[in-house]
Amino acid sequence: MPEKAILYEDVDGTRFEVELPLTSNVDPEEIREKLGVPSYVDMDYFPMKSAMVSIWAAINAPELHKRYPEVFKKRVSKKPIPILLFGGGAVKICCENANGSRPLSRKLKDTDYIVPRKQGLDFVKLLLNMDEAFGTQYKSFKTKSDGLFNAIRRGDRYRVRTVEGIAEGGIPIVGVMDVLCDRIDLRHEINVKDAFEDYKENLYTIGLEYLILSKTQFIMDYPKKKLDRLREHGQDYRILPYHNYANDKVVLGMEDKDVRDVCAIFLDHPIGNDGREISSEKIRRVLKKDQKLALTITLNLANLAENPDVLTRWVIKRDASIIADRIQTLLKGLPKVDKKWNKPWWNIAVETPIIE
């Protein structure tokens, strides 16, 4: 094994390196228990191990300078930083059926974080010192392009590079980590500020309702002349039942990975008002304020509920029926959208997956 690994070489020749083997001064499994994260969560994935350490460090931010005075010369933050997971990592925490060898489990490549805007810079500074306190497995760094990206975003979003996996031979795999602040701004904007108040109750995630909204907000259009290609890839089930769009295009909904995550959420959680149930009222309140988001969400959910046979790609027929029934129940409490659009009603200035 080489003595050092080059993580990145910047445009000015600056090298970001790390000594090998990578180190860890903490036990992520022990931290998971302290945080109260369920034991069913897949801890075999390195991003989940790293997430546990990052979450613990963030909520203990006011005390880190006392615990690690040689690393943190002053207090990182006056208050705990309520770091929240969204995306596949959050689904694994909330849903037992998204873990292990279960059909809805999928590989976790990275984790997605969202923090309060006022504490975004504090969290980034914490990330950049994680390796010195907790070991080089948790190393993050900022390149010149990352610094420019962060300056342009002016506190709305941050980007750093981080170790997101360890390859054979102990060689670190480096990826890009985006840290969102206050809201998820993809095909639609979803403000999740109120989720910070319940970060422990929601197991350090944005919560079931915002998870559903963030997963079902994906939408894109696709040329009708290429429908054969869509069928070849088994993606024609994604065509949404919307007939007011441009004549030469169809509207596509969620990708496979998001469908699986949404299925796991509905399979594990009934509709209701208990803390571990999906609140239709909470989702309704969000959608009442945004007709465009409401249309996308209801189209995606209805497409799954009305096609339970599609879900048998991943789950048995009984579970597909449970998922479809729960989605139908949720839809009954959501606002109806009467306004019609014949062109994109979503944000098109985001990366669109290519169906080759």
Task: Please give the structural blueprint.
Blueprint: E1 4-9, E2 15-19, H1 28-35, H2 46-59, H3 64-67, E3 84-86, H4 88-94, E4 112-115, H5 120-127, H6 130-134, E5 140-141, H7 144-153, E6 157-166, E7 172-181, E8 183-185, E9 189-191, H8 208-216, E10 220-223, H9 227-232, E11 249-252, H10 256-268, H11 280-288, H12 291-305, H13 308-311, H14 317-332
Parallel strand pairs: 4-7
Antiparallel strand pairs: 1-2, 3-4, 5-6, 6-7, 8-9, 10-11
Summarize the structure.
This protein has about 350 residues and is an alpha+beta fold. Helices cover about 35% and strands about 15% of the residues. The protein has helices at about 30-35, 45-60, 65, 90-95, 120-125, 130-135, 145-155, 210-215, 225-230, 255-270, 280-290, 290-305, 310, 315-330, and strands at about 5-10, 15-20, 85, 110-115, 140, 155-165, 170-180, 185, 190, 220-225, 250.
Q: How many whole angstroms does the radius of gyration measure? A: 21 Å
Content of β-strand: 15-25%
> How do the strands of the widest beta sheet line up side by side?
3-4-7-6-5
| Record field, number of beta strands | 11
Secondary structure class reads: alpha+beta
**What is the CA-CA span between the terminal residues?**
39 Å
Mean pLDDT metric: 95
Write down the domain tally: 2
**Segments where pLDDT lies below 50 for 5+ residues?**
none
- Percent of residues in helices: 25-40%
How are helices and strands ordered from N to C?
A: EEHHHEHEHHEHEEEEHEHEHHHHH
Major sheet description = 5 strands, mixed
Shape: globular
User: How many helices in DSSP terms?
Assistant: 14
